Amino acid sequence: MKTQHNLPAFRQRGVMLLEALIAILIFSIGILAIVALQANSIKLASDSKYRSDANLLANRLIGEMWLAHSAPNFATAYQTGGASYTAWANTVAATLPTTGASAPTVTIVPFTAAASTPSNAVTINVFWTVPGENTGTATGHQYSTLTQITN
Q1: pLDDT band at 135 (very low <50, low <70, confident <90, very high)
Q2: 44 in a structural domain
Q3: Is residue 83 within 8 Å of residue 77, measured between CB atoms?
Q4: Torsion angle of alpha carbons 34, 40, 45, 48, nearest 10°?
Q5: Using an 8 Å Cβ cutoff, are 40 and 125 in contact?
Q6: How many Cβ atoms from other residues are within 10 Å of residue 123's Cβ?
Q7: Does 51 map to a domain?
Q8: Is residue 10 domain-resident?
Q9: What is the pLDDT of residues 18-77, one digit of tens each?
């Protein structure tokens, strides 16, 4: 005759519910990580756009300087505070989010190197602050460029 062994009755009630809750927790953590990656991607894309805009604005001013470099009032017109600078600075303010950021600066330093033609060293600094971002600094982000314009 076959004998039947009675195994102790294990109480496994709710184990499937516990497994389902753990699976939901792991899935939720994964979804939150994807949302965080998306938010970071959007932030970096906007920062890249602002940096590209600052680069284009600075190069635009350099192009204008190359066209007007032989004018007698070149340095006074394009240096910070000049008429051409003011028009360019207004374009910068309209293009970049400059709330709380410093105004852009343009510094022109004339110099003559030995055995070369007179030229001007031009330094352009563009500042901006991304809306909603706390950078911890007074100026926020900055793009700087240095070029030489030969007379």
Answers
A1: low
A2: yes
A3: yes
A4: -150
A5: no
A6: 13
A7: yes
A8: no
A9: 899 999 999 999 999 999 999 999 988 988 999 999 999 999 999 998 888 777 788 888
Domain with 32, as residue range(s), is 15-150
Q: How many independent structural domains does the chain possess?
A: 1
Name, in order, each residue with C-beta under 8 angstroms of 88's C-beta and a sequence gap of 6 or more.
57, 60, 61, 64, 104, 106
At position 85, the amino acid (one-letter code) is Y
Q: Is 118 part of any domain? A: yes
pLDDT tens for residues 84-131?
999 999 999 888 887 666 888 888 887 766 656 677 889 999 998 887
Amino acid at 86: T
Q: Which residue has the tokens 């017109």?
A: 77
Q: What is the DSSP string of the chain?
A: -PPPP-------TTHHHHHHHHHHHHHHHHHHHHHHHHHHHHHHHHHHHHHHHHHHHHHHHHHHHHHHTTSTTHHHHHSTTSHHHHHHHHHHHHHS--TTSPPPEEEEEEE--TTS--EEEEEEEEEE--TT---SSSS-EEEEEEEEEE-
